[in-house]
Write a structure and sequence with these properties.
Blueprint: H1 2-23, H2 57-62, H3 68-79, H4 83-96, H5 103-116, H6 120-133, H7 138-149, H8 154-172, H9 185-209, H10 213-226, H11 230-242, H12 246-261, H13 268-286, H14 292-309, E1 328-330, E2 337-339, E3 347-353, H15 359-373, E4 380-386, H16 394-398, E5 406-409, H17 413-416, E6 424-428, E7 434-439, H18 446-459
Parallel strand pairs: 3-4, 4-5
Antiparallel strand pairs: 1-2, 3-6, 6-7
Helix pairs in contact: 1-3, 1-5, 3-4, 4-5, 5-6, 6-7, 7-8, 7-9, 8-9, 9-10, 9-11, 10-11, 11-12, 12-13, 12-14, 15-18
Length: 463
């Protein structure tokens, strides 16, 4: 069970694994295991004295020093998956060993177990004991902040905001070189961004509780720009509705509804509630459902732009270039850039595709027929231009799907040639002028039309 994995991971981290390993050499009764080798024959041992001033062997065993590590592991094992039993066992251990060097780990385990048992008060108590001992324990501090948010009083919310703010500052200063060796820098940065987003949303919710809506809007908007989430959008929508800004509320509810559909952790009931809230407010304002679909698309586009607004400025390739033959485009395999002008004097087929385009596969098949017709001609080349916004998607996709031709990133060529839909196939003549364009999914007669365009362009003199 998940609770058990968490508890054991916490406890074993603090050295119980070694203690358990040492005890594996003992039998069930606690005596050392018998050796497989034949024991040496020894001389008879004299019987122990029974004088009053000498304790029998049994009494000596009873007065042996206790093994706290063994008792702690037994306390965990005897809980057998029962959170309440685990709490009782660990609390009893702490009564017996109040100064145990494992007490910080035990407090963590108790906080987790109380959370699983929905005892938020107990969980908070143990979480704060951990923080008192180890103020840099960010995981436990985050747990405490989440617990405090669930409490109804303003003092708890303010206390939670304090923890949350400390975490935001701490994460901002985190050194990427401190990440685990097996974690890539990209994964570490993505994880930090997601965690920071959650912290801003959490603080925004607590600020709402304290009726500090201006602060809440600032934090929730920051979170949404970092990583759009349904939670951030929903809270922004509720604030806008309270402030009678109906259009903004509808837009935020629409964003929340669409984002919830992409989140596997969002329940169908929650998604349906978002849909009803958005629809009810729209109908209240417009007296019908007319225009709701257009609003959803507009909200999607607007939120996409806003999410990009706070991002670091992306590298712009071929800035200011308009002549296709002046473009220099990166190769997908990372081997460097290729200048389109190197193909001057040739017929160039530009196949604009994306990883999400199902129709691209159909058009790729028809392009195969065209390439077969002109096979052997080195003056007819095919360039497969990936137009995904996130170029990192291309390489994994190409491991499963084949796209023929020299594989390049668009790097602005799609904008220069006004590619407005995917797939788009363009044929450039020998001088780099457009001789043919098929924009969108248009399979009927495609192979014949593009072949004819290539033939005509072949006959024309290079400019």
């Amino acid at each position: 069970m998940r609770w058990q994995a968490v508890v054991l991971a916490i406890l074993l981290t603090f050295g119980l694994r070694e203690a358990a390993g040492a005890r594996q050499t003992q039998g069930a009764s606690g005596a050392p295991a018998k050796s497989a080798a034949k024991p040496e024959k020894k001389a008879p041992v004299a019987q122990p004295s029974t004088k009053a001033n000498e304790a029998p062997a049994a009494d000596a065993a009873q007065t042996a020093a206790p093994d706290p590590d063994a008792e702690l592991q037994l306390a965990v094992q005897q809980a057998s998956g029962d959170n309440a039993a685990l709490v009782r066992n660990l609390e009893a251990f702490l009564v017996k060993y109040p100064d145990s060097p494992r007490r910080t780990a035990i407090y963590r385990a108790l906080a987790q177990s109380d959370m699983q048992a929905h005892d938020t008060k107990g969980a908070l108590d143990y979480a704060e004991k951990v923080i008192a001992i180890q103020p840099e324990d960010s995981q436990t501090m985050y747990l405490a902040a989440m617990i405090l948010e669930k409490m109804p009083d303003d003092a708890s919310q303010a206390h939670g905001i304090d923890y949350d703010t400390r975490l935001i500052e701490r994460v901002a200063k985190a050194d990427p070189e401190s990440r685990p060796q097996q974690m890539t820098l990209d994964d570490w940065q993505a994880g930090r961004k997601k965690f920071t987003t959650e912290l801003y949303v959490l603080r925004g919710r607590m600020e709402r509780h304290l009726r500090k809506n201006d602060d809440a809007v600032k934090d929730l908007t920051t979170a949404f720009h970092m990583h759009p989430t349904a939670d951030a959008a929903m809270n922004l929508g509720e604030i806008a509705e309270q402030d009678k800004r109906t259009d903004e509320a509808i837009r935020q509810y629409a964003a929340a509804f669409m984002l919830a559909g992409d989140d596997p952790d969002t329940s169908a009931a929650t998604e349906n509630a978002m849909r009803l809230r958005m629809g009810n407010l729209w109908r209240f304002t417009h007296n019908s459902n007319a225009g709701l679909g257009d609003m959803l698309l507009a909200a999607f586009d607007q939120n996409k732009l806003e999410a990009k607004a706070e991002q670091p400025e992306a590298v712009v390739y071929n800035k200011g270039v308009s002549d296709p033959l002046q473009f220099s485009m990166r190769q997908v395999d990372g081997k460097g850039a290729m200048k389109l002008g190197d193909n001057r004097g040739k017929i160039v087929i530009l196949n604009f595709w994306t990883t999400w385009c199902a129709y691209c596969r159909v058009m790729e098949s028809q392009l195969g027929d065209v390439r077969s017709k002109f096979a052997g001609r080195d003056d007819v080349v095919t360039l497969a231009i990936n137009a995904d916004e996130d170029g990192s998607l291309a390489a994994p996709f190409l491991q499963e799907q084949q796209v023929a031709g020299t594989l390049l990133f668009a790097d602005g060529l799609d904008q220069a040639l006004h590619v407005e839909s995917i797939p788009t196939i363009i044929v450039l003549d020998r001088g780099g002028k457009i001789a043919y364009r098929a924009q969108g999914y248009a399979p009927d007669g495609f192979a014949g039309a593009v072949s004819e365009a290539i033939t005509k362009a072949s006959a024309a003199a290079a400019q």
